[in-house]
Amino acid sequence: EAQVTQNPRYLITVTGKKLTVTCSQNMNHEYMSWYRQDPGLGLRQIYYSMNVEVTDKGDVPEGYKVSRKEKRNFPLILESPSPNQTSLYFCASSFRGNQYFGPGTRLLVL
Amino acid sequence: KQEVTQIPAALSVPEGENLVLNCSFTDSAIYNLQWFRQDPGKGLTSLLLIQSSQREQTSGRLNASLDKSSGRSTLYIAASQPGDSATYLCAVKGTLEYGNKLVFGAGTILRVKS
User: Fold this and answer.
1) Interface test with B, best of A31, A60, A99, A108 (most B CBs within 10 A)
2) Fewer CB atoms < 10 Å away: N or C end of chain A?
């Protein structure tokens, strides 16, 4: 089954404790991206990657890092999480403009 | 900078009614426009994708139109059902010179009453 998977689905952590949210797709898509969704602000792009080893900032990249060492994986790294990064995070992959979203990761930073 | 606006923000209709959701965007240099559905606390499900060269797309009871020159798209839902209750999101993908960035509207919350 073609899909985008994210792990973990739910995460509670404390300020400053490094965390990684994994994202994997099995559709051999070149384009992948990360979004966060906040009430009243909608979905905003954090980072995107047009291919392996090619990443670029989206609209809200501060406090996040990404890497793209393999085509299928695009992890999101929070080196020192803060409470304002509490949000719902989505990973997506894309082919010919059609976006496929993962199920989301709900993050709470205390 | 591309901005996407969706009107109305919320809509409540009785079952069986036909309805229209609106999406407008400020920059006509788009690659495509996509409509999504999101159920509470869940991910996004793609409904319809319209390429910049297309005028409309249809899937079942759903029809989406695109008028690039005026910066507008509409999602038409025929014979609405309670199961259509969800948030509907419109997203515009920019051209390559804009990094193919996807910009979302804030969504329309739809409630269909039985």
Assistant:
1) A99
2) N
